[in-house]
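Exercise 7.
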Amino acid sequence: MSSKMPEKEIVRLIAALVIFIFLIVFAIQNFHAGARVRLLFWQTGRTPISIIIFVSILVGVLIAGAELLPRVLRLRKRAQEAEAEIARLKTGTTARTATRTENNV
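Solution. The predicted structure, written as tokens, is:
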């Protein structure tokens, strides 16, 4: 049985690969250019700019993920509750339909 990927997934995969290739090229070309990072009382030595940018992006993604996680979990719980309610209503409807059919016979 062959499983085909939807077109949207293929486009997303190709876009991710293109972006990844650009990031690798950027990192290689800017690896020798360095800068010092200072934050309050903390300071780094000479660090490649590409590493500084990647760490900054990673920190931003982690902060955004921490911000979104509670909402995602809350929405997932609501979706599960809604699915359970739908299943309950369907079984209640089929039970009532079966009872009506038996009473009419």
